[in-house]
Design goal:
By secondary structure, the protein is mainly β. The protein has one helix at about 1-15; strands at about 35-40, 50-55, 60-65, 70-75, 80-85, 95-100, 105-110, 115-125, 130-140, 140-150, 160-165, 175-185, 215-225, 225-235, 240-255, 260-270. It has one domain (about 1-270): Beta Barrel (Porin), CATH 2.40.160.150.
Length: about 270
Amino acid sequence: MITIVFAITLICCKKEHTNHDPDPSPPAEHTPKILLKDIIIPNLPSPYYHFEYGPDSMVTKADFASGFNIYNVLYSNGRINEMRNNIIVNHDTIRYFYNNAGNVATIHFISENNELYRHVTFTYSNDHVTKIEWDHKAGNNFLIDRSVSFAYHQDGNLKEMNEHRPAISGSPEINYTIHYDQYDDKINVDDFTLIHDGIHDHFLVLPKLHLMKNNPLKEMLTGDGNNYTAAYTYTYKPDKTPASKTGDVLFTSGSMAGQRFTTGVSYTYY
């Protein structure tokens, strides 16, 4: 979806920082199989996502939008404890807390002044994430500003992602559903991008959270705004990871109804 969201943007324009362990329970086993290096999207800062790894093949650095945010990823007991943004204008700490199953339960966003200003909470069913909520500090309270729920096909691949954003500070309420179908039998490496709100929110490294095992060939968005259908084709490397992804996108309703364009993504690995 990242290519479509930013393609829409481009078209419209033309028209307490300590390394403590928040949860001492034993870590879940983590054995990365694929070392993704870059995700590259034409007309966007390049690389759009970049990762670096330690000798144990675990992410040590994550870069978004060619330096827009650069995170050092810190571990405790074999799993992510904190991500620390390391750019001149932002030194937020992103702190992880886990449930008894070893899944991320809550993430805290903490400013350079040690102020907790945002939570991300995760709900699971049988190790599948079913809901993620984001809130922000408003006075003495925290208000939910984004909620995403998930439904899955029987094979474990994501079937639907339902997004709700309440009306806040003059912004209108937003609701939409993205349906994914016709999966291939290859390896997905970019499902983490589905929940990242681009430049509006921090990027989260989530090694155990997998929304898609394989790659969808069909995508359809319905709801508020511009609705679309997309058909994807891929090229693959010998290890069944994608080398490139091309999307044929047709807007079916909204201000861009009837317009068609092509999206592209390429992937590199270590």
